[in-house]
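Chain and backbone:
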Amino acid sequence: MVFSSLVFLFIFLPFFLLGYHLVGDRYKNGFALLSSLLFYYWGAPDFIAIAIGSIIIDYYLVYLIVLSSSTKRLVLLWISILFNLYFLMYYKYFNFFIDNLNEVLGEGNTYEIATIILPIGISFFTFQKISYSVDIYRKTAPPLKSLRDYALYIMLFPQLIAGPIVRYNEIADQLNNRKFSDYNDRIYGIYRFAIGLAKKVIIANVLGERRT
């Protein structure tokens, strides 16, 4: 599901905005997380279990960082970083590595592997998770108290597939203490969204089609 698709614009986005403003403040994070998981599942159903599993593992790795002594904290931080980089390198660069290895070996000595499909947004949520681990290790922001809120930080759909990568310490307070803007700011936000959508559909998509 892309932001310029009819499904997103006329089904998913209206449903999300309506539901988000109808539920109470206590349930907004939960509703946003469920919506984000649905958004991801729509585009990459085969990888939703991997995304959720890696989030759970990372959350508890960082939880151990908070509880551990200084030496163990550094070890656990590197475990978290390497764990995330492993998935990124495997899914994003393993095919590239094999293709180049086959070029070097020449015909008759090539390796054949099944094509590895790249999960949607893997670069963005990988570096989001690393950002959280590093910020908690450095104590630049307090750790999140629930797995739900951590998963929301990683999987929030507006930045999941197109970025930007957001440092945890920059939005830590907003995950549980969001203040809603006035109507002028909301109208301006809708205006910005409409301008961006027009640029995507009218300019970027058309140029992309001509290039292909």
